[in-house]
Specification:
Elements (H helix, E strand, L loop, with lengths): L20 E2 L8 H8 L38 E4 L8 E4 L11 E5 L5 E5 L6 E3 L4 H11 L1 E9 L2 E5 L20 E6 L4 E7 L4 E9 L6 E11 L5 E12 L7 H6 L1 H4 L3 E5 L7 E5 L15 E8 L11 E2 L2 H5 L9 H4 L3 H6 L9 E12 L4 E11 L4 H9 L4 H16 L5 E2 L3 H18 L1 E5 L4 H4 L10 E5 L26 E2 H7 L3 H4 L6 H8 L10 E8 L3 H11 L3 H11 L6 H10 L8 H10 L2 E7 L12 H11 L4 H7 L2 E2 L5 E3 L6 E5 L6 E5 L3 E3 L1 H7 L18 E2 L6 E2 L1 H13 L9 E2 L20 E2 H21 L3 E4 H19 L14 H20 L3 E2 L3 E4 L1 H25 L16 E15 L5 E12 L5 H6 L6 H12 L4 E2 L4 E2 L28 E2 H13 L3 H12 L6 H4 L7 E4 L13 E4 L4 H13 L5 E3 L5 E3 L4 E2 L5 E2 ...
Parallel strand pairs: 31-36, 51-55
Antiparallel strand pairs: 1-18, 2-9, 3-4, 4-5, 5-6, 7-8, 7-13, 9-10, 10-11, 11-12, 12-19, 13-18, 14-15, 15-16, 16-19, 17-18, 20-50, 21-22, 23-24, 24-25, 26-32, 27-30, 28-29, 33-34, 34-38, 35-37, 38-39, 40-41, 42-43, 43-44, 45-46, 47-52, 48-49, 50-51, 53-54, 53-55
Helix pairs in contact: 10-12, 10-32, 14-19, 15-16, 22-23, 23-26, 24-25, 29-30, 29-32
Length: about 1200
Amino acid sequence: MSYQKNGYTPVETADASNGLYEKPGMSNAKKWGVAFVAALAVAIAAVAYPRGAAMPESAGPIDKDGKLRLFDDLDRYVMEDFDSKPTFSNFLPSVAGYYGKPVWSFYVNRGQGIASFGTKSKEQPILEFNSANKAYQDTPFVGFRTFIKASRGMKSFFTEPFSPTNARVEGGANEEEKPKRIMYVGTNEMEVKEIDTVNKLTTSVSYFVLPEEDFAALVRRTTFTNDGSSDLTVSVLDGLAKIEPSGGKLDWGLKNMGRTLEGWMGVYHADDTLNLPFYRMSTETSDSAEVKIETAGHYCISFIQNDDDKAELLPIVYDSSKIFGQSTSLVKAAGLMTSSVSSILENPQYGDAKTSSAFAAVDDLVIAPGESVTLVSLYGLAGHVEDVPKIADLVRSAGFIKTKFELARSMISDLTAGVETNTANHLFNGAIKQMFLDNALRGGMPTILGDVDEESKNSNYDEDERVKVFHAFSRIHGDLERDYNAFFIDPTYFSQGPGNFRDVAQNRRNDVTFLPRMGSFDVQVFLSYIQADAYEPLTVEAISYNIYDKVAVAKIAKEVCSDPKSQETLTNVLLGGPFRPGQLFELIEDLNIHIVVDNPIFLNKVLAVAEDTPMAVFGQGYWADHWEYYLDLIEAYTDIYPDGEEALMYDKELKYFFSSATVKSRSEKYVLTYTYDGKSKHVLQLDSTVFDNEKVAEQQAYLDQSTGRLGIDANWQRTEEGVAFKSSPIAKLFLLGALKFATRDAYGMGVEYEGGRPGWNDAMNGLPGMVGSGMPETFEMYEVLKYVKTVVDKFDRPVVIPAELGDMLDIVNKALDDLEASGFTEPEDFDFDVPSELFDYWDVVASARENYRNNVQYYFSGNTTKLSSDELSSMLGRWLEQVEIGMARAMKIGSHGIDDDGTSGIPPAYFSYDVTKWTLNGKKNDVGLPLVNARAMKVGRFPLFLEGPTRYMKTVKDKTVLKDLYQNVLNSGLRDDPLKMYTLSASLVGQSYGMGRMMAFSPGWLENQSIWLHMSYKYYLQLLRGKLYDEFFAEMRGGGMLPFMDPEVYGRSLMECSSFLASSAFPDPAMVGRGFLARLSGSTAEFLSIWKLMFIGPEPFILGKDGEVQMTFTPALPLWLFDDEESGISTADEDGNLTLSFKLFGSITVTYHNSLGTDLFGVHPSSYKIGLKDDSEVTVKGSKIPTKYAVAIRKVNDIATIDAYF
């Protein structure tokens, strides 16, 4: 069943022009009061409820059954009684636009939502960063608070909206007398609302990140609505209970020496009022000989929203003791309760040597019946106290906040336009846009730069060297629940931060599908990261740019600068070394360079003459799966540019990344140590990589003496002559495949985890120590080898490889000859002891691999070997046969676990190897344990993991085989029947803790038999790729995919992915099915691939018989997306044919006309009508769009619409 019901209605919010009335006799003796009185002239906007009418219980979007709807008309998720529901954490996207500076912000469904926010990283908080478990407890107290002293006639009351002491308790008595609370979760906003029917007062608080300004701010709007029939007089303190100052990296100090740290804290002022406090440390806290005085600080600016005139600033109460008195728990505002707002403002406040507050103060404000007033507060970072009045002067301009809020909404809508989808299922449409946004937040939003004329605007990255690609808004997925990740969001224009290799590679998979002008950019970037040892670095950073053309720079400086000094300074900046867009604009501001053209024009001119360089950092360890995402990038490219494959594979030259770590040989990492019980000894593979000081010394040759930083050339492997060594993409792919083929385990099944880290399932961190291997890597290696062979056979061109690799190939192929000559045959019943013939082959090949790595550890010789296409094809064909034998062998050995005897017909995922015989080699590791050489091995098995069949499905083309495998998985321990989903693993009961951290978790939690959405979505994607349409859509609508899950069980927005759901294996049934670890998940990449197959189909651009480019659509769309019987929603053309539409390449509206009135599964249109931007139309008969218009569609510029008729 579907949990989406009924239609949509707007949520009423007091978002229009707001104002207030003055109470007769109100004091204006204080200078702040004079300004405040001036603000009282603001016009008041009535809310949607008639004056004196009773407030409806939920005051939200109501369905025909009288229940609160899940989403309002803005597609905001609606959570009723949010603070009495199970906890969840979330975040605003921290996107301030290309020419804005973001703050990061996290929120929870407790208190007033925002749990933490700041700039750059958790080290620079404005509200301290805390893990989710603490945030759920602390947010109502240390976060945003609102205290109201009010009177209506002769009756007075004191209230704190959203206080946990007044939260409803599910099942409690007389709960209807307590305030009603609702949370609204939007793509770029969050709002909480409290409806107090006793005091007839509605309080609404909303948040958004200020877009498109040169300063960073979180905007908070607090709206008070008088729901009564008589005037309401209020005095209010509204703001932040605890605000941290600016002053270096604070997170560690706040948590470990917080009281001492307060000694540096102070509140300063931008003028002689209370209106512009400035929170900063006096100096940085480092105990060193060099003392750095702090100038940057955090500000709080507050005023009453006015859309017609300039608003007057409100005074800020920053001395928390005046508000809370001795209530150090902050549970109640004891100081205010025994005093008044006016008294607090009239008396001294102190902000030294303690953590301060930031409350906007309003005294004796009269709100008429049915009217509303909105307090606006901005919290952010300013470089100097002198900047604060300038910021305040801008933000309180008439209509500024309203305009910025509208921009915050429209900006996100524009950024997600690439997947605008209009089907009969409204929530599905919204979920697609949310997935696209979250995918970009992890992988980056690809942006084309360098457009300086019509030629460049009509070209892609491969066609015009001036065209550049930059990914904005990306960051590592650190948040309240992923507290282990140190996220970084650069507070600059074109903001971005580094990400993990696997995350970025996966989430950029479909970039070219949505932005064809990228061409092969992503493919080239990621293939560049392949090292000589076939591993990759951990951390991917943003592209950097260099300019070497002095003449071009001089020309640009003259065109864009207003004075000679600016020209000279800009010239020095552009020629001074690598830069990114954000850094460039920061330098322009810091160096007072005067630019006379608009920012986009300036940036395009600069980047058009720049050279781009991929950037990365080794990080820690070598994960075994990083290379597995290359074929996805290549496939996405060739789906759009099938005519560009040969040039990409053979005619480009790519460098090899040079990391500072080296993988040890087996003789240096096979460690003899005691077993856990201390009763015997066994061999573990430990400390597989070593930080290589000689590599670091090599990199030091590129140290910039003026900056103390390594130059970008230090990241690329060279010959001894100092020249960066390059190979074609096809050569690098072959090198990759060859080294993975040479890293197969002793039984020839899985690829060994010999780099110290496992594959995608990195919670099996102990598996490398168990001399483990993975079949997922074998399946992916098989696909890489097949692809290389296909390319070689198709284009019949030689491939040039490093000579060192050629030497290794000779030994590998000779070892294969010897294995075949040994007479070894596959036994009917496999013994777990590795046969000697296979062990000997493994030992020789592993030694060849290690010798190769030693030969290229620091340099390539520069010598090369040319392999003919015939020679290479024959070699690859032989290897593929061996891999297939190993895959069949793995199926026979199988998995082993609870109710699993290895005969499930499901491919196993992992193996371990017990070294049963060894010899001491005389070496010891760093802690003195003896090292050994293996002489014999025995394979170990594990329970089923979903990754096994998921990756295996890529290798299967037979639909019958896929159907059988699907049924096997459905009937296995991987199926969570109550939830109708799939677990990451079958039961792990009885497994060794040595396999990794997943064994430390309770079953059903994190990686131990939970629902890991990313792998589940990978599995669903393979069903769709395998054309198992009925099975796929049954899984989707059956609750396995968003937005079709049960909202009460999932516990958060149905448009947002979680990393995992607690499965039915979890002991606490109240937790089962709930989503945890919000949003920034690889599942969004899989979802977008699913969207692509559903709406566009595989291979939209194809080559005709003569090699000409053609286009076709091959959707996989169920009838219910045209006509949803549950909601009664459908659309039709003038002929009555059902229709749906979507945006192609973010620009072209494609409409499908379903005259068949059936599912459109794998069928082509019978005709097309193409609408050009000059308003002309072209009709095309047949399923294929001819070359002229196919190319025009790919270039996007001239095409407006495509109507496809089925």
